[in-house]
Design a protein that fits this description.
The structure holds 3 protein chains of 3 kinds.
Chain A: H1 2-28, H2 30-33, H3 44-56, H4 59-69, H5 79-100, H6 109-112, H7 119-138, H8 140-143, H9 150-158, H10 160-180, H11 198-225, H12 231-258, H13 270-291, H14 293-296, H15 299-323, H16 335-358, H17 378-382, H18 390-411, E1 435-438, E2 447-450, H19 451-458, H20 480-483, H21 496-503, H22 509-512, H23 527-530, H24 551-557, H25 559-565, H26 580-584, H27 587-597
Antiparallel strand pairs in A: 1-2
Chain B: E1 3-8, H1 17-25, E2 49-52, E3 58-61, H2 70-74, E4 80-82, E5 88-90, H3 100-104, E6 111-112, E7 121-122, H4 128-131, H5 138-142, E8 148-152, H6 153-166, E9 186-189, H7 210-244
Parallel strand pairs in B: 1-9
Antiparallel strand pairs in B: 1-8, 2-3, 4-5, 6-7
Chain C: H1 2-9, H2 11-38, H3 58-81, H4 83-93, H5 102-124, E1 125-126, E2 131-132, H6 139-155, H7 160-180, H8 188-198, H9 205-215, H10 225-231
Antiparallel strand pairs in C: 1-2
The chains are: A mainly alpha, B alpha+beta, C mainly alpha.
Chain lengths: 606, 258, 232
């Protein structure tokens, strides 16, 4: 019981962390809490929680088939844990989906909006139906303890055979249709994994790995609860799984050969390495180990082999589910994604442990140290007081849980929505000096930021605080867009203030806007009216409105980029828009500006 | 009546009028560079973009509105729909946010509201409300050089072929979108290779939804097959066990399986 | 120093605040579990309050009640409704609410500090003997640190370095208090009503506060959930 306590403590820790991350995921959205992107919309949650979860739950339908259909009664001992594992596995899949789906509260739409052509539609329905079947298959076990439920229990036991058969059918379908999902991604999935046989591959590996999962779970719980594992029985599973896995390997290699992709197996790419790693972990090493009778019949040997194979299938499903894509970008899960996955699994394991401690999953329930201390092995009886009696244990669990959750909240960024995807540079002591080169969107085109000219506009020496002030996190400077409001908008290059000063302050409005009319773009005069030669002769551009591009496009990517390449002259608008600059550089405008600022101001290249 | 857009990259001057018109028409908020954006300029807030090629060419990118769209066949709740007008439209009230459409699109077009707690799929919808009332999309209307034009697909294919005929050597001899993945409603003619508009692999002419047809059609048969096989095996084994145990008959359905 | 300040107002604050909320919730859940498992909730009723050992005069009682009211109002209202905190809340949780006018919050801060100090002195004076004793609830003074430092930071001009030091003190002492709330007697603010609910004892808040103010003195052995659990 001592081991179980420690394990539970760790599981509660993961669950607490996941609680905080879950709150963050639903408050701030997927972008803030995952490393998913437009290049890799599926990631760890699909690969691990959903695909691996379903595959590892395959033990349920295989063991029920062995016992109830093929009537190999000696395997009865592993039926209950296998069905329980499958049930909890599917619940974990649904929990994982709740995090991964963008709109999980719409999950029920699967029931009313149908698209039978979609593999995901089929997967969804199979999960729903099989989860129901599993619940009905498992329900008689806890019902044993409550006499009030005896009638329901008897009724369910009567229909057990049809339930089992339906469950096998549904499992077959959707273990394979999880593979069919990826048939739609011929241009997305790496060719080492993409194959028309994906559904078959998925099904066969699920059968092999379902058996290994039963083995792994039996040995792990045996270690946890000082139980005697069903080693001899499981050795027969191992012998069977060996052939299934070999068959799987043959099919995969044959398929690669048939499609002429074998050379990919030797290309020096990291994807190739992952392929071999996955195959070794999932098939080659377990098959070799299981072929040695000394290993197959030993407790440790079985445990290690099954563990390797289970991790192998997890790696395989993660590879298919998001890691092994062609094209740009690569994806590694963020710690928040890992936390959610660990939390979901921990939750499932905790429920599993509760069930085995409370109900008759095995022939003998594990001993409870509070009531039956003498049933414990000597080693554990001595350490019985490690966490004290159950109530103290509950306090320890909950303490770990809230501490982990609080750490999770601390680690979560509070306002990811504010982030621009590029970490802001803290500005202290004007480290950048008088002139900064700012390239906000990191596209290689920068703009020059001049401290002195901004200071001048903002109001002299004391104006630093208008951009640098202490209420922003990390003393971050005010974003350009705070003042240059239209920076990210497709906007006017037309500057009202320049035109107003050139035309003579307030009276100038009616020069362009019709008197009495609403002052808007529509009621204004056309640029062409003043700038006579705005559109050069033979230009391909038809002027339809007054709009030009916004600052950011103008400065960072569009005009300047090309115009600079085309030669010095082209960086000035007047090179093409003849007459434009003459008009702005009217002597009286320059004179007024000189008078106002006390020095000659160089006009920006408008 | 199936509409289409034909983009002639040799005529594009990279002015982004189409981008601006699209944002105005669809009320899209301003975009910022974000972690999850791809460098092609498309995002949840930019449904069309103009890509600067290193050789100084401009290529407009948008949803291709495939004739047999992978996204439509992927969506489990039928939120995406290929309409008679040619537009692939999106019903946000049905969406569950599985992002399967994003995974399946051969051109990598659909984008996601990653920064929203209530996110939706975002992509060009061919200005569905405009084209279904007889107007043309905002982008083609805004284009100052007629580099991107709107019309019936058959007609635009004619136009494209005519341009290829009239100025041989100016264009690569191919109408992009005529046959790839079963054909698309957005066509290109170009003097440069446009394969960068896909996810990076060469596209075949086989429509993507064809690839799941076999597996999906097999579903009912597989289910019935497995179920009846299991029932048959069960019946045979049960009978054999009964025959073996004839001297001491015992009902096979015991109450407990522990 | 600046990084420490940012850490204090960012991750550490979120940690402390989450720990406070979850910790209190945990106490409630554990208390419910305990009453359900033990099935002898009546036995765990809080000991009936006897009258004050030394009956103080009416003036003393009234002053005590008034000071306690001011002290608690300040401790609850200041973190929530000072304008600067409202901005900080908006930054931390994304939404905010109304703020107190500067004058009100300043006066409240002064009053809270004064009331806290006075309460500390009053509890330090043993009425029976009329002298100041040694071991007294020094924790009351800890509660005053963030209030006082916040008031100073908001109202006086400092050199940047000393200002930051003051803010550091303010932020870290505040975080400390938040984090330890579920593990100290302050948690009684949640557990007390709960215990009353469980044992169905009548609860008249105003009268209770009065009674509490009359009998307020440090209990010899605080009944915290940890100790009661170890008894089993």
């Amino acid at each position: 019981m001592h081991r179980a306590r420690v394990v539970k403590l760790i599981l509660w820790l993961f669950t607490g962390l996941a609680l905080a991350v879950a709150a963050g995921r639903f408050l701030y959205g997927l972008g803030a809490t995952t490393n998913l992107s437009d290049a890799t919309p599926w990631g760890l949650w699909i690969g691990f929680d959903v695909l691996s979860g379903v595959a590892l739950a395959a033990g349920g339908f295989i063991v029920t088939a062995i016992v109830y259909i093929f009537r190999l009664n000696e395997f009865r001992a592993v039926v209950r844990p296998a069905v329980l594992t499958a049930f909890l596995g599917y619940l974990a899949v649904v929990a994982g989906l709740v995090f991964d789906l963008g709109l999980p509260w719409n999950m029920w739409h699967l029931i009313i909006y149908w698209n039978p052509r979609s593999p995901l539609f089929e997967v969804g329905w199979c999960v729903m139906l099989y989860l129901t079947v599993l619940a009905l298959e498992f329900f008689p076990v806890p019902a044993e303890e409550f006499s009030a439920l005896a009638r329901i229990r008897r009724a369910l036991l009567k229909i057990r055979l049809p339930l089992v058969i339906t469950g096998i059918g549904l499992s077959t379908l959707h273990q394979s249709s999880l593979g069919s999902l990826f048939l739609l991604m011929p241009y997305h999935l790496h060719p080492l994994w993409y194959s028309p046989l994906l559904p078959v591959n998925f099904f066969i590996s699920a059968v092999g790995l379902g058996l290994m999962m039963v083995m792994f779970e039996s040995h792990t719980t045996a270690w946890l609860y000082h139980r005697k594992p069903e080693t001899a029985l499981l050795a027969r599973f191992g012998a069977g799984a060996r052939w299934v896995l070999l068959g799987y390997l043959t099919i995969r290699l044959a398929d690669l050969a048939w499609r002429g992709r074998l050379p990919l197996l030797w290309t020096p790419e990291w994807q190739t390495a992952m392929f071999w790693f996955e195959i070794a972990l999932m098939v080659i090493v377990p098959v070799l180990l299981l072929s040695i009778p000394a290993v197959r019949f030993s407790r440790t040997g079985q445990w290690i082999t099954a563990g390797l194979a289970v991790w192998g299938v997890v790696v395989n499903r993660i590879n298919v589910g998001g890691f092994m894509q062609t094209g740009r970008g690569y994806y590694l899960p963020s710690w928040t994604e890992l936390a959610i996955s660990c939390g979901v699994v921990s939750m499932a394991v905790l429920v599993f442990m509760f069930m085995v401690e409370r109900f008759r999953i095995w022939e003998k329930r594990p001993a409870d140290p509070a009531t039956a201390a003498d049933e414990l092995p000597e080693a554990d009886r001595a350490r019985l007081r490690w966490l004290g009696p159950p109530r103290a244990a509950a306090e320890a669990y909950s303490l770990v849980f809230i501490l982990a959750a609080a750490v999770g909240f601390a680690l979560l960024a509070p306002q990811p929505a504010e982030s621009r995807g590029i970490s802001p540079t803290p500005v202290r002591h004007a480290r950048g000096g008088e002139e900064l080169r700012i390239d906000g969107n990191l596209d290689g085109f920068g703009v020059t930021f001049r401290h002195s000219s901004h200071q001048e506009v903002a109001g002299g020496k004391d104006s630093c605080v208008s951009c640098h002030h202490m209420n922003l996190p990390r003393d971050r400077n005010t974003a350009c867009s705070e003042c240059h409001r239209d920076m990210y908008l497709p906007s006017d290059a037309f500057r009202h203030d320049w035109h107003a000063s050139a035309r003579g302050a307030n009276l100038s409005c009616v020069d362009c806007h019709r008197k009495g009319a609403l002052r808007s773009r529509e009621t204004a005069r056309h640029c062409n009216d003043c700038h006579k030669d705005l559109i050069p002769e033979g230009s391909p551009i038809e002027v339809k409105g007054y709009r030009a591009v916004g600052y950011v496009q103008a400065m960072h990517q569009l005009c300047i980029g090309c115009h600079a390449n085309l030669g010095e002259e082209m960086t000035r608008c007047g090179a093409c828009h003849q007459g434009l600059e003459d008009f702005i550089d009217l002597p009286e405008v320059s004179a007024r500006r000189l008078e106002r600022s006390g020095k000659r101001v160089v006009l920006p290249p408008y | 009546m199936s509409f289409a857009i034909l983009t002639d990259t040799t005529k594009c001057i990279g002015c982004r009028e189409c981008v601006i018109a699209c944002k105005k028409e669809n009320n899209l908020p301003p975009d910022f560079p974000r972690r999850w954006n791809l460098e092609d300029g498309l995002s949840a807030r930019n449904w069309t973009s103009v890509i600067d090629r290193p050789d100084g060419k401009y290529v407009r990118k948008q949803c291709r509105h495939c004739l047999e769209p992978a996204c439509v066949s992927a969506c489990p709740v039928g939120a995406l729909e290929k309409t008679k007008t040619g537009a692939v439209i999106y019903a946000r009230r049905k969406c569950i946010g599985c992002r399967y459409c994003m995974m399946s699109c051969p051109f990598g077009i659909p984008r996601y509201d990653w920064d929203q707690p209530v996110p939706y799929i975002r992509k060009c919808i061919f200005c569905y409300s405009r084209i279904s009332t007889g107007r043309q999309p905002a982008c083609t209307e805004a284009c100052p050089t007629q580099a991107t034009i709107f019309g019936e697909r058959a007609h635009l294919l004619e136009v494209a072929r005519q341009r290829l005929r009239e100025s041989p050597g100016k264009y690569l001899d191919k109408v992009w979108g005529e046959t790839e993945v079963g054909g698309t409603s957005v066509l290109y003619i170009s003097d440069i290779d446009l394969s960068f508009l896909t996810r990076g692999q060469e596209l075949t002419d086989e429509p993507v939804p064809e690839r799941t047809k076999l597996a999906m059609n097999a579903v009912p048969f597989a289910f019935l097959g497995v179920v009846s096989a299991m029932a048959a095996v069960n019946w045979v084994i049960q009978r054999r066990m009964k025959l073996e145990r004839e001297p001491e008959p015992r009902p096979p359905q015991e109450a407990d399986h522990a | 120093m600046f990084d420490w300040l940012e850490f204090g107002r960012g991750p550490l604050f979120r940690f402390a605040f989450a720990l406070m909320l979850l910790g209190l919730l945990r106490l409630v859940v554990l208390a419910f579990l305990r009453t359900r498992n033990n099935n002898h909730s009546g036995a765990e009723a809080p000991p009936a309050r006897r009258g004050p050992t030394v009956r103080p005069g009416a003036l003393w009682t009234a002053a005590r009640a008034l000071l306690l009211t001011v002290f608690h109002t300040g401790l609850i209202a200041l973190p929530l409704f000072v304008a600067a905190h409202v901005f900080a809340w908006r930054r931390a949780v994304g939404f905010a609410w109304f703020a107190l006018p500067k004058e009100v919050s300043d006066w409240l801060a002064v009053a809270t500090v004064a009331a806290g100090a006075a309460l500390f002195l009053m509890s330090s004076i043993d009425l029976a003997r009329g002298v100041v004793e040694g071991r007294r609830p020094i924790w009351v003074l800890t509660l005053l640190v963030p209030v006082a430092s916040g008031y100073l930071a908001a109202n006086f001009a400092f050199q940047p370095e000393s200002y930051r030091f003051l803010m550091l003190l303010h932020v870290y002492s505040g975080n400390f208090i938040l984090a330890v709330i579920p593990f100290t007697r302050v948690a009684d603010c949640v557990l007390e009503p709960l215990a009353r609910y469980v044992v169905r004892s009548p609860w008249r808040p105003l009268a209770e506060i009065l009674a509490l103010s009359i009998t307020y003195r440090p209990r010899p052995a605080p009944v915290s959930p940890t100790t009661s659990a170890e008894e089993v």
